[in-house]
Amino acid sequence: MKTRITELFGIKHPIIQGGMHFVGLAELAAAVSNAGGLGIITALTQRTPDDLSREIEKARKLTDKPIGVNLTFLPVVNAPDYPGYVKAIIDGGVKAVETAGNNPGKWVDMLKAADVKVIHKCTTIRHSLKAQALGVDALSVDGFECGGHPGEDDIPNFILLARAEEELKVPFVASGGMADGRSLVAALALGAEGMNMGTRFIATKEAPVHENVKQAILAASETDTRLVMRPLRNTERVLRNAAVDRLLEKEKALGANIKFEDIAAEVAGVYPRIMQNGEMDAGAWSCGMVAGLINDIPTCQELIDRIMVQANDLINKRLAGFANS
Ligand SMILES: Cc1cc2nc3c(=O)[nH]c(=O)nc-3n(C[C@H](O)[C@H](O)[C@H](O)COP(=O)(O)O)c2cc1C
């Protein structure tokens, strides 16, 4: 399937694996890229730019296909060493970067000067237009369904993607709630030229996370996620567990007075305990409503192959049948 997204990134299928903290490591990124999608290493999971350089090298040994790196701009006072990470990306010969979070403006020119294609992930048309004006090559339009940070405007993808088609000139992929060939065809119908998946890629054989995490996604339904940190305007969609229930109780009790310190125990530094040790109640971890559509743990190759078969069947048989009837 050829779209502006496959052309932009030099990939076979219009499927991207979104950056995921403590999930987007070399093994997963390489597996997605080997299967014809765009695999993405998450920069901030690497403690230093040197660690990121090593992770890029590791992925390169596992695949000769294009890979990308996610750079998430966090709303924190003591910013990570972003110039160092950008240098590691450029020096490592990576040609695709997924930016997310705060305004990527400062880094877009630097990346583009090094011939790196930038896809910015955001959750509103307002931010998409701003990123387009900054010169990004593509957008990842992330609906309210998504795992991770859906923003504060709560626009689901049926509306958001159609609005993106009305407003944007650069190509965009649909992100949030995407799981299979049906998702891809729906996304294409709404104007996207591909899709980005997070949660679905965690439940794959190559995802380098504890088996408990994969089983938790399989066990979850579409009603099992919760939104946390809304009072802090840093909303995150997470899988419900004991820590999330405790966090929500605190939000209820403290109301508008809540501070990050009040909930730090439930959110700060919990990812390694969950993703690596499989302590499923250690804290809040991002998970999309799409968990309700995930029932197995295929390889990335099996997953992507069957998505493309289903998408092609839908377009050429079911939809063509309707159109010609
Ligand atoms: C466990 C997990 C961790 C994530 N970490 C990040 C991250 O560090 N940076 C980022 O830009 N997005 C992050 N995301 C968001 C994904 O890249 C992607 O946009 C999102 O999962 C799409 O929604 P879906 O889960 O419904 O597919 C994360 C998502 C999950 C599920």
From TrEMBL:
Entry GO MF terms: oxidoreductase activity
Record CDD domains: NPD_like (cd04730)
Source species, domain of life: Bacteria
EC number annotated for this UniProt entry: 1.13.12.-
Transmembrane regions: none
The keyword Oxidoreductase is assigned to this record: yes
Gene3D superfamilies: Aldolase class I (3.20.20.70)
Keywords: Flavoprotein, FMN, Oxidoreductase
SUPFAM superfamilies: Inosine monophosphate dehydrogenase (IMPDH)
PANTHER family in the record: 2-NITROPROPANE DIOXYGENASE, 2-NITROPROPANE DIOXYGENASE-LIKE PROTEIN
Name this protein carries in UniProt: NAD(P)H-dependent flavin oxidoreductase
Organism for this UniProt entry: Camelimonas fluminis
